Structures are given as C-alpha cells and as structure tokens.
Amino acid sequence: MAALLEVRNLRVEFPTRRGVLTALDGVSFDIAAGEVLGVVGESGAGKSMTGAAIIGLLEPPGRIAGGEIRLDGQRIDNLPYERMRRIRGKEIGAIFQDPLTTLNPLYTVGRQLVETMQVHLGIGAAEARRRAIGWLEHVGIPAAAQRVDSYPHEFSGGMRQRVVIALALCAEPRLVVADEPTTALDVSIQAQIIALLKRLTREKGTAVMLITHDMGVIAETADRVAVMYAGRIAEIGPVREVVKHPRHPYSVGLMASIPPLDRRVERLAQIEGAMPRLSAIPPGCAFNPRCPHAFDRCRAERPELLEAGATRAACWLYDPASEKHVPESAIHG
Amino acid sequence: MAERIVHEPTGEDFAALPVAERLPAARGAVPDAAPMVEAEDLARHFDVSRPWLQRVLAREPRRILRAVDGVSFAIPKGTTLSLVGESGCGKSTVARLVVGLYAPTRGRVLFDGQDLARARASAAQRRRMQMIFQDPYASLNPRWRVRDIIAEPIRAFGLVRDRAAQRDRVAELLTHVGLSPLDGEKYPHEFSGGQRQRISIARALSSNPEFLVCDEPTSALDVSVQAQILNLMKALQRELGLTYLFISHNLSVVRQVSDRIGVMYLGRIAELAPAETLFTAPRHPYTRALMEAIPDLEMTGRQRVPVGGEVPSPISPPPGCPFHPRCPLADARCRAERPALIPARGTEETLVACHAVEEGRDGDPATAASARALA
Ligand SMILES: Nc1ncnc2c1ncn2[C@@H]1O[C@H](COP(=O)(O)OP(=O)(O)OP(=O)(O)O)[C@@H](O)[C@H]1O
Ligand SMILES: Nc1ncnc2c1ncn2[C@@H]1O[C@H](COP(=O)(O)OP(=O)(O)OP(=O)(O)O)[C@@H](O)[C@H]1O
Ligand code: SF4
Ligand code: SF4
Ligand SMILES: [Mg+2]
Ligand SMILES: [Mg+2]
User: Fold this and answer.
1) SS3 state at B37
2) For residue range B163-215, what is the model confidence (pLDDT) as tens digits?
3) How far away is chain A from the Cα of B136, in angstroms, using its nearest Cα?
4) What span, in angstroms and rounded, lies between the C-alpha atoms of A142 and A333?
5) Which residues in chain B (271-300) have CB-CB distances under 8 A to chain A?
6) CB-based contact (8 Å) between A277 and chain B?
7) What are the pLDDT digits (tens) for B69-96?
8) B32-258: CATH topology
9) Where are chain A's structural domains?
10) Which H or E element spans position B11?
11) This prediction's pTM
12) Which of A169, A324, B174, B232 is least enclosed by beta carbons within 10 angstroms?
C-alpha cells in the first residue's frame, strides 16, 4: 500500500547564539492511509518537533534543514505559507500538546469550531453550529448544547483538551497529527476518544500520527510504533513487538519503567542518567553514556536503523559485523 | 568524555542541599500523625450564566455550576492523598481551594490546624505550601529565564544567604528533575512539554515546602522520567516527611504513590479508602466502573469498558445520588436521596457514599475481591 505520509531524512535545526543545534537528524518513516503510527520516547527527544515539521508549524528560528515530507506523493515541506495554511486544517488536522495555545481565549469554543468548519467545508452557519454541538458530544462534553457558548477558561483541563480534539477532526482531514491527545483525560473519556480515532481510521481511512507517553494507549491504538531518542528514531516496528519485545537498549529500559498496575513497588525502575542536551550529543550512539551494553564501536560510530528481528533498531548490537554482536535473547535474558 | 548527567536523585541529596532553612524534624508516614490539611464540607460554585442582557431576553435563569459541592477529608502529615475521577469532576478546583487560590463558596480549609486564609497572610506559612499546576506552560513566566523562575520562591522567602548559594540551589534542583544546570540560562519556550513540567516541579520544590499539591505532575513525562520524578517524591517524603495532595488520571501511578485515595464524582467524594484496599476491594459502583476502563498493556485483546451512560452536567446535577443515571444498582431511593459518605459494610476503613453498599445489596465484597484476585 502506498504511504499517505512519507518522511525522509528529516533534519531540523535551531540556530542559536551558541551555535546551530540539531533537534532532528535523519528521521524517516511512513504512515499509510488508515494506519496509526505511535511515537514514544524520552521527553525532549523530538516527538513534538517531528509533528510540528509535518504540519509546517516549526517555531522560528527552528527550520527544516534537510530531507523531504510528502503527503500523497506531493512535497509539503517547501510550500509557501498560504498553500500550507490551506493544507493544514483541511488535509492535516493537528492536536497540540498544550491545549491553551490552540484555543483562542477570546472566542467561545462553539465559534472556533463553527469558523473552522465554515472555512474548510464551506457549509452554512446554522449547519456548522449543529455539527459543532455534535462534535462536542462525540468527544464527550456533557450538556454540549448548553456549553457550546462557553469560553475556554470555563472548561476543565480535560474538557479543553477535548475541544482541541474536536477542532482538529471537524474538517475531516486525511492525516491527524495528535500530540499527547489523551494525557489530560481520565481513562473513561480516553477510551471514548480512542474509539473515535479508531473509527475514523477504519471508516474514513484517516492516517494518524499519535505521540504519547501512555503505553496503554499505544498498545491499544497503534499499528506500529517509533521510539525516539535524542532527535532520532531508535527503533520502529509493529506495536506488539516494540512494546513486548523491544530490541534497542533504550526501548528495553523505557518499557521496564512502566509503573505496574497490579501491585505497589517501593522503587520504580528508571533508566539511570538523563538524555544529553542538544548541544552535547555524544559522538557515536547518542545513548552510549547510559547504555549497559555499550562497547568501543558505540562511542565512535553512529548506528543507522538495522534489521533486528521483527523490528528495526539503531543499535550496533544488531550488526553482524560488530565485534560484540549479541543475539537478541541476551538482551532480554 | 561526553557530558553525562548521571544523577540518581534521593532525599539524602536533597537534605544535603545548602539551604539556610531546614525543615522541622523529619517525620515518617505516621498513620496517626496530626493532619497537615483538613477540608470541611468544601464547596466552590461558579456562575456560568450568559451575559445579563442575553439572559433576560431569552428568559433564562441564572446558571450555577457546582464544581465542588461538599468535600471533606484530612491528610495526615507525611502521607499522600490522591484524588482521581472523571475529567471535570472538580479535582483541580479542590487543589486550588486547598492552597487558597480560590475562596470557598462554603466550608473551610485548615492548614496545620490554622484557618487557611489566616495562614496565607503569613509568608512563613505560604512557604510551607506549593502547587504544581496541571498546565505547566501557563504557570511559567515566558519572559523569565528558567533559573530566575526557579529562584523566585527562594528569593521571595529569603531562603539563602547570597547569589552563589542561590545559584547552587537552582543547579541542584535542575539536576534533581533530570535537567542540566546549564538549562537555567534558557527560556520556557525553548523546552519540550515534559521539560517544562520538570521546570515547574523544580520551582515548586525550591522553597522547601512541607505540603505539595501536585495536579497531574507527571502526565507530560515519558515513563522513565516519570519514574525518576516519582522516586524523588517518595524519597523526599520518606526522609523529610512531605505531605502530598496528588491528582492523576493514571491509576498505575496513583497506586505507586498514595496512602489513601479519594474517588470524586461530580464535585463530591464517592469513595475514600486506603490505597491498597481501593484496588483490591473497590466498593462504589463508580470506582468499580473506573477500574474496568483502565487501558490494557498486556494486549490480551480485552475490550476496555468505558463507564456507560452520559456524563452528567455539574450545572444541573441529577437529584439523589449523582451517579444514579449510570449506575446498574440504582433504585428508587438512589433517585431521591443523596447518600452520605460513611464507613462501608465489610471494609470499614473505606468510606463510601452509596445506598447499595449501606444496604448490603452490592454483592459480598470479600467474594468480589477474591474473584478479582483469581481473574
Ligand atoms: N525554540 C527552541 N529553541 C531551542 N531548542 C528547542 C526549542 N524548542 C524545542 N527545543 C528543544 O528541542 C528538543 C525536542 O523538543 P520536542 O518538543 O520535540 O520534544 P518531545 O519529544 O515532544 O518531548 P516531550 O515528550 O517532553 O513533549 C528538546 O530538547 C527541546 O529542548
Ligand atoms: N473558572 C471557572 N469558571 C467556570 N467554570 C469552571 C471554572 N473552573 C472550573 N470550572 C468548571 O468546574 C468543573 C470542574 O473543573 P476542574 O478543573 O476542577 O475539573 P478536573 O476534575 O480538574 O478535570 P480535569 O481532569 O479535566 O482536569 C468543570 O465542569 C469546569 O468546567
Ligand atoms: S549502539 Fe551501543 S550504545 Fe547504542 S544502544 Fe546499541 S549497544 Fe547501546
Ligand atoms: S447510591 Fe444508588 S445510584 Fe448511587 S452509586 Fe449507590 S447504588 Fe448506585
Ligand atoms: Mg512534546
Ligand atoms: Mg484538572
């Protein structure tokens, strides 16, 4: 199946007073129509940045410094602002991590939905208002008809989050970039939102890039998962493989840190150390200072994605030519 | 060698910090310790009527939203009470009431035995309570450097002797939350969502508070950084006796940190129980439904069961028990009479507001618990 979204060797840079920071480096992946790609990884790894680059909303001075982004085969990373603005909203719906930055505090939530639909779907005001109430119901806002004229500050954190979701979906885009769409939501509303996203992928063939820290949501929703670390993809593969049998040592540590639901532990497992700052990414594999398996080659050469059983991992352990080639069982055993 | 921030934050490190003011005697989680915070019949209502003229023209009555409507609890010193419950049920509003950011419509809050409004008037008392907000970006001043944001409480309360001590303290706090001291030079917009969340945690810790309200403190963090922060919070509690009011939607996280858990529904507490009891023997029908809705990491294909029925509106809450339109056990009494929060038959440490539990028609809790253990 041809991919709806193709990202190839994406590189994003931030010129600063102290030199150019590389926030994303060589990021490549596809998402097919009707597919959900989950994106997880260390806080600060570049997940939101990847989403922002796709929807053409990198915050200046950030800029795409290399690579290509294609939607349905057509390049969208080098379009003039106006063209991109029309694609955004109509073809690509965006759910941002921070709901307050998406919502205009001066307009009621209803007005924001109505205007979005009028611009992108060309429908009348009455019809748009009817649909706005419908969307608020879809995302589980109680008494939607009564609350459609509320201002964002009159909603709770999770209710604002749901308005943002409704805004991203109401123009029926073909690709949805969802950055932490469910973190502010309780498990029940979360289940409802996920069911809604799944239904859109199934019935309308919508493709979804789902950025989240919630592994439960990933396990339930995603078809494939990409694990990011320090501006690169560390591992990518089918959801079950990546969550249950991660190959990359960072993914292994990440999955081990998930707090158990069925018991209380004195101390939670965590990956020792912290991700390097963008200005001090170590040479070779960026994970090497924290990796329990690091060997000489890891400190000298940067690994590309390599076949690692059912997934692909950027780790020298999976290069048959490495002096320390460890079969995957050694990592898990 | 590459820059490497290998730091395992513990309460010991925290205790060793060069701070002028040290907390009073460190205290473990003594079950019968005096309460740090007590809420008595706390309520907060909002007027959400449309503008006067529109309202009069449309002949609409005033609309009052009861965000919190009669909540009582006590948090013993050195322990953690968590609040869970559906989005919009009033958790953040309770949090704001408890640190005095909202004035209560009814009821009161006692802080260390003293009326909260009185306590807030004194800087020495204000230093003892801090809040981590649900929305980290909105609570960070975008025009300040991170080091100044974190140092602000230190300066405001005069906690260090000189600038050098202040710089060291900020560096330590940044390291505790997994950032680098060099990050202090940057502005909030230069950070990712989770990094901002960590900045607001560092800021909240900077005044050495004894009582910390944490509203979704880790929801923006990846699981590894989350584990790091939760381990830090637990270590601080163990060694310095901090008291927490903790709010989270993530029930696995709640299980790891709580001594007691309050389940809220539509502005009230439906069930208040010791943490382990709540997970092994949930009593209120809403708590049970909530447990069913937890996402499944095992990928067994188990269907999540969202809590059925419509989420009611806090503007016109249902009469009687607010959960009755969605409750499988609802009867005529439930539709008419509001249940009080009382010890549950069978699990006396649990307080529950449910007629079915009181009447013993909720199924035998002991049998239900062992059935779950087998499943
Ligand atoms: N305006 C900026 N200037 C400089 N660096 C920036 C800027 N915005 C983001 N960054 C850096 O880029 C990196 C990637 O940020 P991004 O927001 O993509 O992280 P993320 O993976 O979404 O993390 P989180 O899970 O915490 O949201 C981070 O290290 C961040 O500090
Ligand atoms: N300033 C306000 N004006 C009007 N209504 C408000 C205000 N603040 C909160 N509310 C309403 O009070 C109710 C409770 O809100 P609150 O923020 O306490 O919920 P919450 O339990 O924290 O939810 P979430 O999990 O989504 O953060 C909601 O219905 C909300 O719309
Ligand atoms: S390449 Fe080396 S340092 Fe990097 S993850 Fe693999 S083993 Fe560890
Ligand atoms: S009081 Fe009645 S309606 Fe309310 S939870 Fe109990 S059984 Fe259900
Ligand atoms: Mg992000
Ligand atoms: Mg809240």
Assistant:
1) strand
2) 999 999 999 999 988 899 999 999 998 888 888 888 999 999 999 999 999 99
3) 9
4) 49
5) 275-276, 289-290, 293-299
6) yes
7) 999 999 999 999 999 998 889 999 999 9
8) Rossmann fold (3.40.50)
9) 1-81+174-244, 92-172, 251-260+268-274+282-333
10) helix B11-15
11) 0.87
12) A324
